[in-house]
């Protein structure tokens, strides 16, 4: 019998307990032994099927030599960070879905795990149930990764889909996403692009091998997005999606950011709806590879956690591939990127042409919407100072 502990019994923690119980046979067949949740760390005791396993004393996990893997689903940094360090110090493997902790302290926790001959695995921290970190670091290991981009937040994609397809109000769509267990405890992190920002940091860390500091990554969510722009974009053959992007720059630097983009209907990412996420990875040998699946929710996220638990138990004694350097130099402002821009302005086409030269007109219906040629972010910002800008977004090239 292999015993594990879960820290935190929210959406993902509950999902982990369910997957371990419901898929017990498949898991046992693969591990050669049954897997059992021995202890669950909670802040407050509550009645239910796991009542007997609950403790509010972390030492009962830390000091229990029978517990080989700890699944951290507390979320946030403070308690999660301290307990993760202590569990690794005690020689236990730690698995997590906690993107904030991995984005901020992953490098250090991986080093600690290595010192202790343990694993720190976090497949569930990006893309929920989609396998993305393992393929990126293992299956695509022979590539130079030039870019990673994708729809990385299920809540905002769900809200956008509901608003655009059924005319739902933002607040109603958000409430539905919360009821389905997609949203963060504080949904500001979802709608302001912070959750997607943490995920693109982790993807960039692994893709480029250097720490990307979340404080340096511009993050814009969907709260300022207007349905007017969605309609104009759709008429011109584009969809608007919230993307996280990490790009290797021609001069050798790297950049990352989160923002709504116009995406051509020809790009399969444009058709990704509801809670689904999709991540596109551009390798110099593979070209574009796309990963698609449910990006949030109890069971998809738990599936990734339990697979990591099984991997910890099978790896001997730990995996080598995953990790990145503390070095942050080489991170550049995303305004360095050259791309086409979408603008909606209060003004005329003449105003648009004065600022940007030739533009592609999308609408002249009282206000003016247009696409620029490929320009740098600095130029876009500089020239837009002469205009009364109502909306501005990058176009994914
Ligand atoms: N709140 C996150 C989302 C959960 O909506 O994508 C999964 O990380």
Task: Give the key terms.
397 residues, alpha/beta, Rossmann fold, Dihydrodipicolinate Reductase, domain 2, Alpha-Beta Plaits, 17 strands, 36% helix, elongated, binds L-homoserine
Cα shape: elongated
Bound molecules: L-homoserine
What is the number of domains?
Answer: 3
Let me know the largest β-sheet. Answer: 9 strands, mixed
What fraction of the residues are assigned to beta strands by DSSP? 15-25%
CATH-assigned fold name of the largest domain: Dihydrodipicolinate Reductase, domain 2
Number of strands: 17
Spans of at least 5 consecutive residues whose pLDDT stays below 50 are none
Sheet/helix structural class: alpha/beta
Approximately how much helix is present in the residues? 25-40%
CATH class of the largest domain: Alpha Beta
């Amino acid at each position: 019998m292999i015993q594990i502990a879960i820290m935190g019994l929210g959406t993902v923690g509950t999902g982990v307990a369910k997957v371990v119980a419901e898929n017990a046979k498949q898991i046992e067949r693969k591990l050669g032994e049954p897997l059992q949740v021995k202890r669950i760390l909670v802040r407050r005791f509550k009645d239910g099927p796991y009542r007997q396993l609950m403790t509010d004393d972390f030492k009962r996990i830390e000091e229990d030599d029978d517990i080989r893997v700890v699944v951290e689903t507390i979320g946030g940094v403070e308690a999660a960070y301290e307990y993760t360090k202590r569990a690794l110090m005690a020689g236990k493997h730690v698995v997590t879905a906690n993107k904030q902790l991995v984005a901020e302290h992953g490098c250090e926790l991986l080093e600690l795990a290595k010192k202790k001959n343990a694993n720190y695995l976090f497949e569930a921290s990006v893309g929920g149930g989609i396998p993305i970190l393992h393929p990126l670091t293992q299956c695509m290991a022979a590539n130079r990764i030039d870019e990673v981009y994708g729809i990385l937040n299920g809540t905002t994609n769900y809200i956008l889909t509901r608003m655009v397809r059924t005319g739902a109000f933002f607040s109603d769509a958000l409430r539905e996403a919360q009821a389905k267990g997609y949203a963060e405890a504080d949904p500001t992190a979802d709608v302001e692009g912070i959750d997607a920002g943490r995920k693109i940091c982790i993807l960039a860390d692994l893709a480029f091998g250097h720490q990307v500091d979340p404080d340096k990554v511009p993050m814009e969510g969907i709260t300022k997005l207007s349905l007017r722009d969605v309609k104009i974009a759709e008429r011109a053959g584009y969809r608007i999606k919230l993307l996280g992007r990490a790009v290797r720059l021609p001069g050798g630097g790297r950049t990352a950011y989160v923002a709504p983009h116009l995406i051509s209907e020809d790009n399969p990412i444009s058709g990704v709806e509801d809670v689904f996420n999709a991540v596109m990875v551009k390798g110099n040998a593979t070209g574009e590879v796309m990963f698609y699946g449910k990006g949030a929710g109890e069971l998809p996220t738990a599936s990734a956690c339990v697979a990591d638990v099984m991997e910890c138990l099978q790896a001997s004694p730990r995996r080598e591939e995953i990790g990145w350097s503390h070095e942050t130099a080489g991170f550049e402002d995303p305004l360095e990127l050259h791309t086409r821009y979408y603008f909606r302005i209060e003004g005329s086409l003449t105003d648009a042409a004065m600022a940007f030269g030739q533009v592609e007109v999308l609408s002249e219906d009282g206000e003016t919407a247009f696409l620029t040629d490929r320009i740098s972010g600095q130029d876009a910002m500089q020239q837009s100072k002469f205009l009364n800008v109502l909306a501005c977004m990058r176009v994914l090239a």
